[in-house]
Amino acid sequence: MTTATVSRSKFNPVYGPVLSWRYGNSLGIDPIGEISTCSFNCVYCQLGEIEVKTQHRQVYVPTQQILQALAEFAPWDVDVITLSGSGEPTLAANLGEILIGIKTLTHRPTLVLTNGTTLGDPQVREQLALADQVSIKLDGVSTAQVQRINQPIREINLTHLLTDIQEFRRIFPGKLGLQTMILSRWSSSERQEYQRWVKAIAPTEIQLNTPTRPKPLKHELAGRENHASPENLPYEVRKLKSVHPSILKDFAEEIQAQTGIPVRYPPICHSQSV
User: Which of 38, 148, 176, 191 has the greatest number of C-beta atoms within 10 Å?
Assistant: First the structure.
């Protein structure tokens, strides 16, 4: 397969719109930049291998550059404007400034997708709370699960992570989603522990998913967006194993019955919306 990498000189912090089964028609904002930067290196990451693994916050893309690019997409006829892009968006020290600028310019709902590793920082919680919606990743309920699936830069203290998410939940007035990627069937004890977390966090909804797109073998900026034909991508990829739709359905029904919290999952697991 011929490899084609997006030129870094063509970086645009705004991309899409992207069709999402979770959020509808979403316009993407990338506050991290052309070099993928994250505190995780998830085995299923659609960007490919993360280039810079860090938990250091700084201004990666100036706010004005983002807003100037966003202005070109007027009148922003989308359901939501989503901060995600090339890594962990809360690593952007200007996160709050970006969210305020988007709201002032577009008057559209804002969403931030985060892995939750920075929520121990009160400044991050304060800035993140400016969003209308936040979805926090929770792909495992044991250290072994998280290490295997998310490959964090340092071992995650799950007790601290739960406390940090709860503290954010306490101050956040918007819609909070808990998003979980299921790579294999969970044991009974893992499902029970997950439900304990769900009850403790009390999110607005839970989003279960399973990989439907292959992972690039190296970083690909184009991975930010959907592709019409993921089976014929212009770069080398590794196919990922998805769980059967019935596993998501059964787990979703179990969670909702035990917690009373709505659970969503892709109606067609081979859909290309994210």
Answer: 38
DSSP letters spanning 37-65 = EES---TT-TT-S-SEE----B-SS-HHH
Q: Which amino acid is at 244?
A: H
| Boundaries of every domain in the chain | 8-264
Quote the crossing angle between the two packed helices 63-71 and 95-106, to the nearest 10°: 20
Distances, alpha carbon 213 to alpha carbons 151, 196, 240, in Å: 19, 30, 7
Four-CA torsion 230, 232, 237, 242, nearest 10 degrees: 40
The dihedral through the CA atoms of 254, 119, 87, 53 has a sign that is negative
Amino acid (one-letter) located at 70: L
Q: Are strands 205-209 and 263-264 parallel, antiparallel or unpaired?
A: parallel
When the candidates are 3.40.50.1370, 3.50.50.60, 3.40.50.300, 3.20.20.70, the CATH number that belongs to 8-264 is: 3.20.20.70
Q: What's CA 253's distance to the chain center, in Å? A: 23
- State how far the Cα of 99 lies from the Cα of 115, in Å rounded to an integer: 18
Q: For 18-77, how does the pLDDT look when each residue is reduced to its tens digit (9 = 90+)?
A: 888 889 999 999 999 999 999 999 999 988 999 999 999 999 999 999 999 999 999 999
CB 181 within 8 A of CB 211: yes
Higher-confidence position of 5 and 238: 238
Token pair recorded at residue 147: 């290490």
